[in-house]
Each structure stands twice: as structure tokens, then as C-alpha cells.
Amino acid sequence: MLRRSRRAAILVAGLVVFGLACAAYALNRRSHDAAALEEAGRTLHRVISQRVDQHDAHLTSLSALVQAAEPAPIATVEQVAASIIRFYPRIVGIDVVDLALDPPRPLLDTADPAVVAEEARQALGSNLRTRSLDGGNRLLLVKRALTDGVGHYALALVIDMNRLSASDTPLPEGAAVQLRLIEPGKAAAEPAGAFSADIASRTQPLRLTLTTSAPNWPLPPLGFLALAGLVVALAALLIDRLLEARSAAQEAARKAVLAEQDARLAHAGRVNAMGELASGIAHELTQPLTAILGQAQAGRRLLAQPDADQAVLAGAFEAIVRNARRAGDILGRLRAWISKSEPAVETVDLTELAGEVVHLLATNARSAGATLRVGDDGSKPLVRADRVQLEQVVFNLARNGLEAVEGRDGERNVIIEVGTQGNDAVLAVSDNGPGLSLEAQARLFEPFFTTKPAGLGLGLALCVRLVERFDGALAAENAAAGGAVFRVRLPRIAGEARKEAAE
Fold first, then answer.
1. Sign of dihedral through CA atoms 329, 332, 334, 337?
2. pLDDT tens by residue, 379-413
3. Residue 235 lies inside a defined structural domain of this protein
4. What is residue 503's predicted lDDT score, i.e. its pLDDT?
5. Which of 90, 313, 335, 377 matches a 20 to 30 Å C-alpha distance to 183?
6. On the CB side of 254, how many CA atoms lie within 13 Å of its CA?
7. Same domain for 71 and 147?
């Protein structure tokens, strides 16, 4: 399973690396194509700017020729126009229109005289007028020649826009050129990823745009894909083999260490089991034997008094008998526990059991100068458990609370609160002692961990085991007002819970 997970992780990592390699290639190609389009656009922009300046020079030369004589030397103008068209193929027509005639008459018959006259009349002085023809495929340039101060001649140049925007060098693959006249007041949307720039001409407001049909994220070629896939596959195979060898070495070392530890633990386990059993028996019997000793000493002191109260003596002897029986019950329960026999499960009233524990620990409470009492919400919950074992748990928790408050300044209180929460019965033992340290909270229920100088560290560990035998749980925390709180949760008898819900 671990090997399969590792190989799945390596496969996913390989696919991610392969994808990143393809993305890096596409990003590099995209950047390269954008740079090539930008360079081609700037180069073509410079060429077109030079060509546009030549148009101005041609119009200026023709204007000077027309102004040389009156009437204008049409034959000479026609010869010069033919030479210009022959050397500059983008100029597809040159004409001179006499504006003094009605209607205006072209002298070279290469342009529409009405259109030329319309543009010439809108020209101020010798300013140049531009106009798109044939849907933007041709450009008309019109300039007035001021022969008599009025200028009744108009010079016209017809430019092929495709030839004007033709590049002298090959453009990047998929690139398309568009050259159009900028019309005042109209803003044209530029496509994303295109090169766009205005031609630097005062007389011919043109805009150059280069677009590309190349995809934004070009796919890598098959050769690159095959090479990248092969490299990633070899790297993944090498990593898998290295991790396999490392795992095998680690597993062999772990097995060797475990074999040595098993040999040591097998011997230590047998010794510790006997020691834990003996310590557990001693710990459990200490409580009733201490009570018997205390009651016996109290009885002896009473017997030494001449007017001994027989009722008090009878109570002391009754307590001795009760604790002796309790010690016998503990030994019986421990023996049953060791032999894995079932506990003596019966219906137990937690409130009543808590009262018995308070009675058993009355002497300890007086010695500690503390108040030990029972608090309940009147629910008197019933649970199914072994009475002696459950009493032993509450006894241990209450006695620990008395030891926690012993020697404290001010009031010393230990409270056993009994109540319900949902379908659970809850018995909480709280004290106003110093509370639990962080280390104690982390290891509180570990066997042989104790914070008492003379403690064995078995009491709480045994309490947890006993409570869990009856499907319960034992938890501890620090109280908000100070001190510690130990809570025992046990399932309530089902019939009692249903009856309470019905009421």
C-alpha cells in the first residue's frame, strides 16, 4: 500500500513537471513571437515613414513645376509623373486638375476631378488633404499649387495602400499588416497582442497595425513533447528506485532494532507484570487498611476513657468490619480481574455511592482541614456497574482532591457533584487546589506516572481501566476558578433516560 501511494505521488509529480515544462516552452515561444512582431512592426514603421516623406517631396516638386509657367507645362508634368510612377510602384496615379474650369478638368486623366476638386476646396492655402478610396485600399493626396496667388491647379497622388505597407523583409509567420487613414473623431479598437503605431507624418495621418494569427499559448512540437516525456519518465523511475532502496534499508534496520528490543522486552515484561500486579494489589488494599487502622486507633482511645460512649464504639467497630469486608471485596475483584472473569454488574445510584465515599473519607477530610461534600441536581442517575470498583474510582478521585488542598491557605473544598448530561450520568470531583501542570495533564493517566513523593502512579491508571469496563470515560482538566476537575461519564440506564424524557 505504501509503495503504491509512493508511486502514485511520483507519477503526479512527474505529470506536474511535464506540464510545467510544456508551459515554460509555450511562455518562451509566446514571448519570442511577441518580440519578433514588435521588431518587425518597428522596422516597417520606419520604412513607411520614409515612404510617406517621399510623397511630400513628390508633391512639392510637382507643385514647383506647375508654378513655373502660366499656363502650366502639362507635357513636362506628365513626363515627370511617368518617371515617378515607374520608380515608385506604390504611386499608381498622378494628376493635375484645373479648378478654374466648370466643371473642373483633369489634365492627365488619372484621378476623379470632382473628388480632387472637393478636397482642394477644403484645403487652406497649400495644405495637403488626404482621403481613403476603394474602402481604404487606396489613398488620395491633394495639394493646391498657388500659381497666381489663388491656386486654380490641384495636384493629386493616388497611393496603393498595400504596396505602401509592403515590407522589404519577411514578416513573422502568421503576421498581417494593416495601414489605414486616421479619421478625426473616430477611435478604432486595437486587437490584443498586436503592434500599433502612428506614422510620424504631419501631412498624412496613418496608423500601422501588425496582428498575428499565432495562438496565445502555442503547443510544443512533437519532438519536444517526446523528449520532455522521456526525461521526466527516466527521472521518475530513478527516484522510485532510490526511494525503494532507501525504504528497504530502513525496514531492515528497523526489524533488527525491533528484534533486539523484543528480546529485552520479553524478559522485562514478565518482571514488570509481576511488579505491576503486586503494586496494584498493595495500592488498592492501602485504602481500606488505612481506614481500619484509623477506626481501630479511635476505638482504642475511646476504650481508654472511663465514660466511653458505647454508640461511638459500636460505630467504630462497624466501620472496621465494613472496611475489612471492603478489603476482601477488593481482593476478590482483583482476582476476578486477573482471571478475566466478568465483574458483578448491578444497578448503582451515583448519588448514594458518592455519599458513601464522603462517609469513608470523613476522617481524611478532618485531618486535612477540608470540607468534603456531595452536590447533586436532584436527578439521582442510575448506572450499571460493579459497585465496589466504581466506589474505588470515586474514592481515589476524592482522596486525591483532599491531598491536593491539604496545606493550602484559606478554605479547602472538595466537592463530588452528581448530575446528568443527555443520556450520560456525570460524576465530577473538583477541588480548589493548585490544579494540574501541563506535564501532568499530558501524562496523567499513564501507569507509574505520579506527582506525589511517595506515590506509585497506579491509582488514576486503574481508575481509567475500571471506568472503561463499564463503557464510560474519565477525563481531567483545570477549573476556571482554580483547582482541578475529574469527570466520570457513564451511560445511564436506558429506561431511566426514556422516563425522564417523557416527563
1. negative
2. 889 999 988 889 889 988 998 898 888 888 888 89
3. no
4. 52
5. 90
6. 6
7. yes
Nearest Cα to Cα of residue 399 among 425, 435, 427, 363: 363
Q: Are residues 199 and 271 in the same domain?
A: no
Give 492's DSSP letter.
B
First-last CA distance in the chain: 54
19 phi, psi to nearest 5 deg = -65, -40
Q: How far is CA 328 from CA 86, 322, 455, 465, 470, in A?
A: 131, 10, 23, 20, 22
Given this model, what pLDDT does residue 271 score?
A: 43
160-169, 380-389, 441-450, 467-476: least confident range = 441-450
State yes or no: pLDDT of 502 exceeds 90: no
* Per-residue confidence band for 73, with pLDDT thresholds at 50, 70 and 90: confident
Strands, E, within 230-271: which ranges? none
Instruction: Tell me the CATH number at 412.
Output: 3.30.565.10
Among 300, 301, 323, 287, smallest CA distance to 463 is for: 287
Q: Say how many residues make up the chain.
A: 503
- Domain of 28, in residue numbers: 13-183+191-212
Say which amino acid occupies 443.
R
Confidence band of 106 (pLDDT split at 50, 70, 90): confident
Residue 234 belongs to some domain of the structure: no
The Cα 173–Cα 177 span in angstroms is: 12
| Beta strand 413-421 pairing with 371-376 | parallel
| Residue 323 confidence (pLDDT) | 72
Residues 292 and 400 reside in one and the same domain: no
pLDDT at position 283, please? 56
Q: How far does Cα 170 stand from its chain's mean position?
A: 50
- State the pLDDT at residue 273: 43
Cβ atoms of 422 and 490 within 8 Å: the answer is: no
SS3 per-residue string spanning 303-332? HHCCCCCHHHHHHHHHHHHHHHHHHHHHHH
At 114 the three-state DSSP class reads helix
Task: Work out the average pLDDT over 115-127.
Answer: 77
- Whether the pLDDT of residue 292 is over 60: the answer is yes
Is residue 94 domain-shared with residue 120, that is, in the same domain?
yes
Of 301, 281, 431, give the one whose Cα is nearest residue 361.
Answer: 431
Same domain, 283 and 134: no
**What whole-number distance in Å separates Cα of residue 286 and Cα of residue 293?**
10
Cα–Cα distance for residue pair 201/19, rounded to 1 Å: 48
Give the 3-state secondary structure of residue 93.
strand
Together in a domain, 307 and 409: no
In a domain, 225, yes or no: no
Residues 285 and 429 in one domain: no
Q: How many domains does the chain have?
A: 3
Asked whether residue 475 is assigned to any structural domain, the reply reads yes
CB neighbours (10 Å) of residue 187? Answer: 7
382: amino acid identity, one letter: L
Q: Of 308, 334, 360, at which residue does a domain stop?
A: 334
